[in-house]
Amino acid sequence: MINSSTFHEVQRSAAADGKADYFRLHRYRFADMLAAMQGSPGASVLEVGVTPGHFTELLVRSGFQVTGVDLDPARRQTLWARLGVTVHQAHLEREPLPFADGMFDWVVFSEVIEHLVYSPLPVLREFRRVLRPGGRLLISTPNELYAKSRLRLILRALLWQSLSTRAEFRHQMRLEGEARYTTHARTYTMAELTWLVEQAGFKVLQRRYEAPWEQVGLEVDRLRTHPLRFLVKGTFAALTAALPPTRSMLLVVAQA
């Protein structure tokens, strides 16, 4: 069971850090991930892609021993120092992880795999290397078959438009160097994601369709302040509740 007081403490910490909106958008994702890791008190966790650090803080406050890896950890160094977490700088697609074999009980790889430019298989194999025998990998990533995204693509195709908006196209074309990792390279279906995990030598233990994004904006007070938006979001939430493969997020837990 997730400790609600811990969750509220991190929510307050995010607000004090000027990141209340980010936490509001991602809090259901964090809850889904913590639920998938229940029953592992005191476990050593390598979190890959830690910025802005909200889930890192949730892990620390929940009793996990956390080490981080990030493309640019220096931006949040004050937070890592406050949490007592060492965050290593590493470029996953260019260098091995800076750890010995079999060091961790868990590797958490949340909302990162979709940003990788090349095949994620070498990265996943590195995760297996640094996990102890029987250790676990948790991956979350946007669902390629999310109902809202699919309907948007269908609508744009029917209107004979590019599948990307003009703003999306121009934003992506201006990205150079490391900045390209700030946008999605590709998203995955559950079958594709589990195939990749198994190809890297893992045994898939859980494959879950979660709905964190659908819940954002369905708070009771939003019905009064944004009734039309509430009804539209409620329609999509009802659709994905009835059809799990159309939900917004894939969550996979696998064993080394």
TrEMBL record:
The keyword Oxidoreductase does not apply. Gene3D superfamilies: Vaccinia Virus protein VP39. GO terms for molecular function: methyltransferase activity. CDD domains: AdoMet_MTases. Keywords: Methyltransferase, Transferase. Pfam families: Methyltransf_23. InterPro entries: Methyltransf_Superfamily, SAM-dependent_MTases_sf. Coiled coil: none annotated. SUPFAM superfamilies: S-adenosyl-L-methionine-dependent methyltransferases. One of its GO terms (biological process) is methylation. It comes from the Bacteria. This is Class I SAM-dependent methyltransferase. It comes from Candidatus Chloroploca mongolica.
